[in-house]
């Protein structure tokens, strides 16, 4: 279950440290805000994805701490104390965890990432690189724009083979994960565009401000 605590939205059922910030904590793209935040978290270090709306997944080790990885939209690690970070303002922050193998991952997905099957690519990286069993992987999806507010054009309708004016990203992701064998899923029920008092939304405000999602063993 997703709950708000001290400006952070988190899934209480997730087995590791995990959350998405809210707008009360400010624009997390600002380096000062990030530095203060990570100092309070007492993590060994952080790694960010550049985020290009692609499907590249990077495996993170200690040598990559403090870096932003180019042309990357998903991060995976089994190293304790490294905070994996992505930034969103309507796109989906997708958290992955295998509590048996002690592996976590975090992916950024808009419609292009979903079209590129970034969630499935992340699961495959967890299984191939760390020996995770698909059935042991839990997925939790943070605040993002919901179908009630996500109007799309012909290009997106053609990509997903859907009709109508709106796109249900959560529904598409759920089907993709089911097809690859992941059944343990949780979704935040709040829409970033609709909840203007809690989240930044590019679709609503055309803002450069971003929420930050973090996962850490």
Q: Overview of this structure, please?
A:
The chain has a 7-stranded mixed sheet, with no helix packed on it. A 6-stranded mixed sheet has the order 5-7-10-9-11-12. With 217 residues, it is of the alpha/beta class. It has one domain (16-205): CNF1/YfiH-like putative cysteine hydrolases. Helices cover 24% and strands 29% of the residues. The protein contains 6 helices and 13 strands. A hairpin with a 2-residue loop joins strand 1 (2-5) and strand 2.
Outline of the structure:
By secondary structure, this protein is an alpha/beta fold. Helix content is 24%, strand content 29%.
Helix and strand arrangement:
Blueprint: E1 2-5, E2 8-11, E3 17-21, H1 31-41, E4 45-49, E5 57-59, E6 68-69, E7 74-77, E8 82-88, E9 92-98, E10 103-109, H2 111-115, H3 118-130, E11 137-141, H4 154-160, H5 169-180, E12 184-187, H6 202-205, E13 211-216
Parallel strand pairs: 4-6, 4-8, 5-7, 11-12
Antiparallel strand pairs: 1-2, 2-3, 3-13, 7-10, 8-13, 9-10, 9-11
Distance between the termini: 19 Å
- The name of the CATH architecture is 4-Layer Sandwich
Structural class comes to alpha/beta
Strand adjacency order, main sheet: 1-2-3-13-8-4-6
- Secondary-structure element order, N to C: EEEHEEEEEEEHHEHHEHE
- Measured by DSSP, the beta-strand proportion falls in 25-35%
Instruction: Tally the helices.
Output: 6
What's the number of extended β-strand segments? 13
Largest sheet, in brief, is:
7 strands, mixed
Choose one word for the global shape: globular
Q: What is the CA-based Rg, rounded?
A: 16 Å
* Average pLDDT number: 93
Uncertain stretches = none
Task: Report the CATH topology name.
Answer: CNF1/YfiH-like putative cysteine hydrolases
